[in-house]
Amino acid sequence: MTDPLLRIDDLHVDIATRDRTVHALDGISLDLAPGEALGVVGESGCGKTMTALSVLGLLPAGGVVTAGRILFDGRDLAAGGERLLRDVRGDTIGMVFQDPLTSLNPTMTIGAQVAEPLLLHRDVTKREAWARAEEMLGLVGMPRPAERMRNYPHQLSGGMRQRVAIAMALVCEPKLLIADEPTTALDVTTQHQILELIGDLRSRLGMAMILVTHDLGVIANRVDRVAVMYAGKVAETSGVRDLFARPRHRYTEALFAALPEKALAGATELRTIPGLPPNLAVPQHGCRFAARCSYATEMCRSQEPALSDGDHRFACFHPVPEDSGAEREDAPSAAVRPAVVVPSGAALLEITDLRKDFPLTGGPFSRGRGTVSAVGGVTLTVRKGETFGMVGESGCGKTTLGRLVAGLETPTSGSIAFEGRDLAGMDRGRRRAHRRKIQLMFQDSTAAMDPRMRVGTILREPLVIQGVGDRAEQDRTVGELLDAVGLPRGAVERYPHEFSGGQRQRLGLARALTLSPELIVADEPVSALDVSVQAQILNLMRDLQRDLGLTYLLISHDLAVVRHLADTVGVMYLGKLVEAGPAERIYAGPLHPYTRGLLDTVNVPEPDRAGPVRAPLGGETPSAAHPPSGCRFRTRCPLAQDICAETEPPASVPAGAGHQVACHFPLV
Asked: Which positions ≥6 away from 432 have C-beta within 8 Å?
């Protein structure tokens, strides 16, 4: 057998803070063969990223390896000191960080940053390094690489910045690539392009890879083996196909059960994992998952299970039976819901020919350089009590549309009729009074809350501004809101940073509910959450909709989330609504080539389905400042003809039952 390229042997990592020590990793052991791809999955705080950072000696302040070895190519990185680590960083080991904007230097050009590893680790001139950097940008699919070399990070989109980060990691052709959540914040098409790019370059360069992610769909089709981590330990590890077909640890089973795809066969709720991971600053006894496991016994609480032997290893006293996979294979497919239900309630929100243009300027004293068409004439109806899901790539206008509905932006033209009244035409006073009925749930709940305010003050603030009730009534309302979103009433005395990501998202939902709205605009409400926490939030949103009669305008790039929650789906492209209709019809038989491309690009959490059935979306999205004539999608459409450039396609209803599409050549 080939000696492993990387061997992590009984690794222990502690992080010392001012008042406590967190035992972040407690005996991690992993092997990685040359050219092999290992996926590392688990909830936030389980130790995935800490394991990756330990390899390169990039632990946070206070972090230290207290025991164990990290053998890379025969050298112990844990004991070799900073000089050895500097030799391997960016040379034989490359790393792609989760947030490329913060990992790139804002004061350096793209070309200088990609060329820097070559100048440090290779005997080359600046001209040779610059030429190689430009070549590398071309290899990672950067459009017009020579031009981009002189750009700065803030001038690039999220997908382009991630390509720069990949180019930096690969420019020295390393033996090992570590990718830490490389596609978390990207839309489905950009995510697919980045993952295809990494896979192609890994195959071409013969690299090994560690892929850290919480997206099980990414893991299913991109790696050879998987390690499932929980509370600083490896709970289960095996080949990817074996793990997905026959998970043995109860934690792994619970992660799979929480996927939105598992509830698409008609179930109204996702399965969730109760409770929270343990506090790693406190000594642990027994199985660390026991407090959240319905199969736990006294043995689980008093004894710590060891990893079993063999190719499929797991640490569980009461594992999932080996033959349980047959039951899952025979179960009804989660790809189709049982029936098509067209929402029949009264129209709550009616948007007609809505447009929003933003001026382009070169600075505060320069003349206008044109406009960006963020929303280019959208017409849609949201019925009372339904969830209208809005999907599309980044920059398609979804969030701008939501902000227009919520009153945070002023339309350039068009109307937004809420309960029959045009909000766009109201004066400020009437619009402020009416806005109570429409609330916005922000994507980043942390940034949406004042870090200097306690939770009680944050939730009471809308009541104070609107003059609703006295102090006692406001406090009672805040308590009821915390009850509704499943948080203790004692949370009123805490600050936002004292809560987990899922808890902060619950607070964001509570804040949106404070004034008893009829419509909530939910902008990417679960995009940054683990699959288990995501399931909790989605179930909570559905329960509150049923109990309070809420209507949701759900904005998301996660097509599985939208499919689970939405009754009606609208698909936007470059400011235009290209398709809309019942969710079941959109997913089962899309009519627009763009919708078909989005669905074909989704990472399905099934290893046997190795990639899209049809060709995914390709090409570069045109600039919204200079959109194509006629159909805006024509520059990327395989069906485009001359009429697509000459005439904008009108919205038609070829499929009936409210399923409309704006395309000259709809799919059949």
From this structure: none
Query: How far is Cα 225 from Cα 313, in angstroms, rounded to an integer?
Result: 12
Is the separation of the CB atoms in 208 and 36 below 8 Å? yes
Half-sphere exposure of 310 (CA within 13 A, CB side): 10
Please report the DSSP string for 116-159 in residue order: HHHHHHS---HHHHHHHHHHHHHHTT-SSHHHHTT--GGGS-HH
Start-to-end CA span in the chain (Å) = 52
- pTM score of the predicted model: 0.84
Number of H helices, E strands in the chain: 23, 22
Which stretch of 128-137, 357-366, 509-518, 628-637 has the lowest confidence by average pLDDT? 357-366
Query: What's the CA gap between 618 and 487, in Å, rounded?
Result: 44
Give me the pLDDT at residue 217, please: 84
Mean pLDDT value across residues 536-561? 91
Q: What are phi and psi of 212, to 5 degrees?
A: -95, 125
75-76 and 63-72 as β-strands: parallel, antiparallel, unpaired? antiparallel
- The residue with tokens 């892929």 is 211
Of 399, 363, 390, the closest CA to residue 578 belongs to: 390
Torsion of CA 579, 582, 587, 592, to 10 degrees: -20
Please tell me what DSSP assigns to residue 652. Answer: B
How many CA atoms are closer than 13 Å to the CA of 509, on its beta-carbon side? Answer: 30
Q: Which residue type does 568 have?
A: T
Pick from 660, 662, 626, 664: nearest CA to 644: 664
User: In terms of DSSP H, where are the helices of 149-269?
Assistant: 158-170, 188-205, 216-222, 240-245, 250-257
Beta carbons within 8 Å of 533's beta carbon, 6+ residues apart: 43, 44, 500, 501, 502, 505, 526
Nearest to 111 by CA among 75, 151, 138, 82: 151
* Phi and psi, residue 284, nearest 5°: -105, 145
Residue pair 214/531 in contact (Cβ under 8 Å)? The answer is: yes
State residue 466's pLDDT score. Answer: 86
Longest dimension (CA), the chain: 76
In which residue are the tokens 């459409």 written? Answer: 637
- Tell me how far apart the alpha carbons of residues 265 and 4 are, in angstroms, rounded to a whole number: 43
